[in-house]
Design brief:
This protein is mainly alpha-helical. The chain is built from eleven helices and three strands; from the N terminus they run βααβαααβαααααα. Strands 2-1-3 form a three-stranded mixed sheet. It is globular.
Length: 313
C-alpha cells in the first residue's frame, strides 16, 4: 500500500460571514461599535458592583459581576477577529491561535451556562424562600459557586480543545466560519471525526440540557410563587426582576442548541446563530441588567455623583 505524505497545517484562514461587498465599511463600523459598547457597558457594571458596598457583598450582584467579566472575555476573543473579515485582505490565524480561540470560547461559554443556572437558583431562593434566603445563599457560598463554575468551564473547554485538535489537519485550511469552532474545524480534519462529533454532541448536549432544565424548573417554581402574590405591584416587581434573566437565557441557549445539537449538519444559518452568544448577548447584558434593575441604576448614580448623591440616597 502506498503511503501518502501529508503536511500538517500551521495556520487556518477564517472566511468569516458572507456579506455584500458594498456593506463592508458599514459592517466593520457596526461590529466595532458593538465591541466598544460591550466592553464599556460590562466594565461599568463590573466596577459598579465591585465598588458599591451595597452590591458587592450580595450574591445576585456577585454573579452579575462574574457575568460581565465573561461577556468581556467572549467578546474580546471573537469580535475583533470577526471585524478583520471586513478588511480588504483576510489574515490567517495560526494553528496555536485557533486552539486558544476554541478553548477560551468553550471555557467561557460553558462557564456562562453554569452561571445562568446559579442566577436562576438565586432568584428561586430569593422569591420562593425569602425568609431563609440570607442563610441559604450567603456571599461566601455564592463566591464558591461562581468559582466552581469557572473550574467546570475550564475542564469543559480543555476537553473540547484536546478532542478537536488531537486529529491531524493536513488541508485544506479554509474554515467556513468567523471563528475557530468545533463543527467548522472538524470538517477540515484528515481523519474520521465520528467519535468527536458524538462526544461533542453528548458533552455539550448534557451541559445545555441540564442547565436549561434546572433553569426551567427554577422559573416554574418562581412563576407559581409570583402568582400567589396578592398585590399587582408585587407581582409586577417580581416579574420585572426575573424578566431580564429569562430574556438573556433564551437569547443565549436557543442559538447554542441550534448550532451544536445537530451533528453532521452544515447550515448557512449557523454563522448567523453564532452571532448571538458571541456578539449580541454580551452587548445586550449590560443594557438589560441596568435598565431593568433599579438597584444597579441607583448604584451608578452613587458612583458617578460622589458623596453628594450618596448622602441624598
Amino acid at each position: 500500500m502506498q503511503r501518502v505524505n501529508h503536511t500538517l497545517l500551521t495556520e487556518f484562514i477564517l472566511t468569516g460571514i458572507p456579506y455584500p461587498p458594498r456593506l463592508r465599511t458599514l459592517l466593520f463600523v457596526f461590529f466595532l461599535s458593538v465591541y466598544i459598547l460591550t466592553q464599556l457597558g460590562n466594565f461599568l457594571i463590573l466596577v459598579t458592583v465591585w465598588t458599591d458596598p451595597q452590591l458587592h457583598a450580595r450574591p445576585m450582584y456577585i454573579f452579575l459581576g462574574v457575568l460581565s467579566l465573561i461577556d468581556m472575555g467572549i467578546s474580546s476573543i471573537i469580535v475583533p477577529r470577526l471585524m478583520m473579515n471586513f478588511r480588504s485582505a483576510i489574515k490567517p490565524i495560526l494553528f496555536a491561535g485557533c486552539v486558544a480561540q476554541l478553548y477560551f470560547y468553550h471555557f467561557l461559554g460553558s462557564t456562562q451556562c453554569f452561571l445562568y443556572t446559579l442566577m436562576a437558583y438565586d432568584r428561586y431562593l430569593a422569591i420562593c424562600r425569602p425568609l431563609r434566603y440570607p442563610v441559604l445563599m450567603t456571599a461566601k457560598l455564592s463566591t464558591l459557586l461562581a468559582s466552581g463554575a469557572w473550574v467546570a468551564g475550564s475542564i469543559h473547554g480543555a476537553l473540547q480543545a484536546i478532542l478537536t485538535f488531537r486529529l491531524p489537519y493536513c488541508g485544506p485550511n479554509r474554515v467556513d466560519y468567523f471563528f475557530c469552532d468545533i463543527p467548522a474545524v472538524l470538517r477540515l480534519a484528515c481523519a474520521d471525526t465520528t467519535v468527536n462529533e458524538l462526544v461533542t454532541f453528548v458533552d455539550i448536549g448534557v451541559v445545555v440540557a441540564s442547565c436549561f432544565s434546572l433553569i426551567l424548573l427554577s422559573y416554574i417554581q418562581i412563576i407559581r410563587a409570583i402568582l400567589r402574590i396578592r398585590t399587582a405591584d408585587g407581582r409586577r416587581r417580581a416579574f420585572s426582576t426575573c424578566g431580564a434573566h429569562v430574556t438573556v437565557v433564551t437569547v443565549y441557549y436557543v442559538p447554542c442548541a441550534f448550532i451544536y445539537l445537530r451533528p453532521g449538519t452544515n447550515s448557512p444559518l449557523d454563522g448567523a446563530a453564532a452571532l448571538f452568544p458571541t456578539a449580541i448577548t454580551p452587548f445586550l447584558n449590560p443594557l438589560i441588567y441596568t435598565l431593568r434593575n433599579q438597584e444597579v441604576k441607583l448604584a451608578l448614580k452613587r458612583m458617578i455623583g460622589g458623596p453628594r448623591t450618596k448622602s441624598k440616597v
